[in-house]
Amino acid sequence: MTVPFTHIDHLYIDGRWVAPEAGGETVLNPATGAAIGEAPVASGAQVEAAIAAARHAFDRGPWSAMTMDERADVMQRMVDALRARQADIAALIIAEVGCAQHITHGMQVANPINHLAAAIRYARREEDERLPIDITPNMFVPGGPQSIGGTTVVREPFGVVSAITGYNFPFLLNLAKITPALLAGCTMVLKPSQFTPYSALLFGEIAETIGLPPGVLNIVTGGIAEGQLLCTDERVDMVTFTGSEGVGAAIMAQAAPTLKKVHLELGGKSAMIVRHDADVQRAAAMAVGFLSVNAGQGCAIPTRLLVHNSLRPAFAEVAKAAAAQIKVGDAADPTVTMGPLIRESQRAKVEHYIALGKQAGARLICGGGRPAGLDGGFFTEMTLFDDVTNNMAIAQDEIFGPVGCIIGFDSDDEAVAIANASRYGLNGAIETTDAAAGYAMARRIRTGSVALNGGTGTMSYAPIGGYKRSGIGREYGPRWLREYQHEKSIFYPIGK
Hints:
The chain has 496 residues and is an alpha/beta fold. It has 14 helices and 23 strands.
């Protein structure tokens, strides 16, 4: 059976499908290792052509000059077109990413479309900002009548945006770039991960369906060299990237000579704090559930499990029992609750860190290997360590796999200190029966978000982003578009 969208063998540049000049690259189903398609690969010249198309579309096309409502009308057609293809997009994610179906249908597909719909609603409320009247002495007529004037702040699109995205939640990540940039009036060149190209290429079909003007959205593929072109070309005004901290730092360096704006959503090593008064059964089950999401391949997943020492033995036992209930396998089976890692290279990285944890003296309480009978894909077991100290590599480095580290603490102050002793600051969680105490702790944790007692379950109305090496800028929420807009102050006299 053909996987939806894997028939796409051309790039989408300037409103046209263009044959790739660099050939094709086989895309694998990580659950089976079997090919699902041959994706097009762009040449450097084609990346430059996409940049030129985006530049021309911004400078001379209609998109940037449209009103916000006009752009919102077009983007509403994108919502409708994506919802009409929602089942096909989910089928693609299951095959291209290997993500379990209960995660795919909600987090991978439905939620991103809801984020777009929410952003459209916010965008329609955007208005120019009129500042208070200003009265000042007239420098040209000393001692004469004072000057009176006003200021209006207008917001304008930033320009041409390069968007580079990761493989773990590809449809979500691609849409998280397309949504604010296009609504703001920018034009874009989108380059996805080589592991998950079809989740980006499908937007070429969507662009045609909704009548997006040529050059507004261009989709290319490729590797490091092609990505570097998108970060260094002077015709590009802004780079937005979601992925690892190492690549994020490289992108900042590449963008620096041309002084581009850089917007980054990077890695995390988030802490889940389980206070002395928490429901240990609930907290342990929740922790394992988080770790199972896309086999731990999520930058915001809490992988440091900070547990009050009075609860730690019970927490470890319940977590071990919960891990045993995780069904690992091919997400084509709807009963599977955890799929594979994306490629063998990622599994090798996870296994390397498991070995480091053992060498450092952490106590392996479950997992640590490969599931029996699943030899065709890139599977790993749910793995939990106890007796972890926060200075161990498994507690400091982003592993990007289902590996949880249980770290004990004796006071709230100690828990906050451990949570903050990380080069990352993306997300966090607190479990407690004292919500007020939990809220006070959340205020002290240096992260872009904290889920108190499970949080709300959605991000559609809240800004998300990182502190420290977890990134620069915010996504989602009422001011999402501001990341892709200039502010211009227009001063003018009033009265005589």
